[in-house]
Amino acid sequence: MNNTIYQVEQPTLQTQRLILRPFTIADAPDVQRLAGAWEIAAMTLTIPHPYVINSLLWKSTTDGIGDW
């Protein structure tokens, strides 16, 4: 079994009206606030409520960040 982990650089996509970039730790407070809203969490299967900051910090240190 090959346990090699490949780091893939995530691109930033930009149009006139949108910038889509990878998450950073600086995004944690906004993600917690938005994902922690019951109206958002109620419509998803994998976002816990309440959404605590430790969830984001743990997720950002794992390889699964793209699996959100």
Q: Could you walk me through the main structural features you see in this protein, from its secondary elements to its overall organization?
A:
The chain has 68 residues and is mainly alpha-helical. The chain contains three helices and two strands, in the order ββααα. A two-stranded antiparallel ribbon has the order 1-2. A hairpin with a 4-residue loop joins strand 1 and strand 2. The radius of gyration is 14 Å and the shape is extended.
Keywords, please?
68 residues, mainly alpha, two-stranded antiparallel sheet, 3 helices, 2 strands, 29% helix, disordered C terminus
Topology record:
Blueprint: E1 13-14, E2 19-20, H1 28-35, H2 38-41, H3 53-60
Antiparallel strand pairs: 1-2
- Which structural class fits the helix and strand makeup? mainly alpha
State the helix count.
3
Number of beta-strand segments: 2
- The neighbouring-strand order within the major sheet is 1-2
Q: Uncertain segments of ≥5 residues (pLDDT<50)?
A: 62-68
Q: In what range is the share of β-strand residues?
A: 5-15%
As a whole number of angstroms, the C-alpha radius of gyration is 14 Å
Approximately how much helix is present in the residues?
25-40%
| Spatial shape | extended
Q: Main β-sheet, in a few words?
A: 2 strands, antiparallel
Please provide the ordered H/E string of secondary-structure elements: EEHHH
| Measured distance between first and last alpha carbons | 26 Å
Report the average pLDDT across residues.
77
